[in-house]
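Operator note (shift B, R.M.): manual run for DUF7769 domain-containing protein requested after the automated queue skipped it. Running by hand, logging everything below so the morning shift can see what happened. Input copied straight from the record, untouched. If output looks odd, do not overwrite the archive copy; leave it for review.
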Amino acid sequence: MRGPNLNDDERIKIVTILFESIVKEKPKHGRIKELADQFQVDRKTIRNLWKKAKKQKSDGVRIDVRSLIPGKSCIVPSRCPVEEIENVELSLRSTVKKLAAAIHCKPTTVSRWIRKGEIKSHTSSIHPDLTRDNKFLRLHFVMSKIYLDRLLNCIKFKDMSNVIHIDEKWFNMTKASQRYYLVKEEEVPYRSCKSKRFIVKVMFIAAVSRPTYAENGELLFDGKIGIFPFTYEEPAKRNSKNRVAGTMVTKPIESVNKVVIKDYVINKIIPAIKTKWPQSASKNIIIQQDNAKPHISGNGADFVAAATSDGFNIQLKQQPAMSPDLNVLDLGFFRSIQSLQSSKPAKTVDELVKNVQEAYENQHANCLNDVWLSLQACMVEIMKRKGHNDYRLPHLQKAAARRAGTLPRDLIVSEDLVAECMTYLLTIAKDTDLEDIMTDLGLQM
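Run finished. Output pasted below as returned.
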């Protein structure tokens, strides 16, 4: 009894078998009858498929034996032409329509491949352009963050619980483009502004350390030192519908220079550290910052006086240049609090400042600890890439590991990788610092 029409997968399978059984440019004797019996179709159907595929191959075109029956019930998507897509210029692969035109197919077909996972969407970001010296300093910096755990006999990252990362970020009153989900008959919201340049924004400086936990998992210190807005208050010069003249109005500091940064570090961040720092923790603290021009050095008399009082010994150090991936704020914590802040409306600078500070305080300490673990994972990738930044941010499945009780405090580093990186560094520059690191790690010179 004749079976149903062949679907596209069956057609492809039949043609594949026929090509694999070729003897003297023809399918093996009896193979067509076997396939006809196997798929319950007439031998003429198998012969027609063979003729069609053979002609397409001889013409030098892609073999396509899909069914041409309109409205067929067994629609099976065509195979994704992986090699053909790989040969298309990236500039022609930025949208579904462009890619479809480049490989001569329909956009709906490309969309189907995307849904099936045969094609993936990727957003390419611009990375800092690193010189040879940049890569060397990045790798050297990472190597200084590992140590030999003699109890467990493995190389691990240092706890870094005495390190505080600081950085600045702009927070906007609203986004220039905002997505909303509306019901069918709901009126589309209208937003206006004279120019995108007039959207109010405020710069903040934040300081975070690594959260600490007791052995039973109890949170002892959330790691959040503080987030401070660069704002000032002045009396309103004239009346308006919102307030009368003379009312104190909060305004953002437009130019954040070295004088302003020095004032905030000495009079806001350091006092906050001394207030919130755990009593049982070491008071030898390192503040890590990037190399922005307004940042101060740790050698100024005013900074040293503030940093060494009350029993504290606070040092200010620079992270390697062009390395935002070595600061937990740039790596992910700023983005996490921005997602919370942007969900609350703000019409004034005071409301924006309140929203940002509440988002900072409400973000769970586990989120901050996760970013510190991600920092260690990034350091491992930097070691693998010999200081380069051409890597993808690794996923450690931290939430699942936390639920299972297997989330590590610090990541273990392969001894072979460490030895490989040390050998590479020593071929570039021979210095005593590297020799000291190798001795501490128990590696042979």
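Quick read of the result: The radius of gyration is 31 Å. The first helix runs from residue 8 to 20.
Leaving this for review. - R.M.
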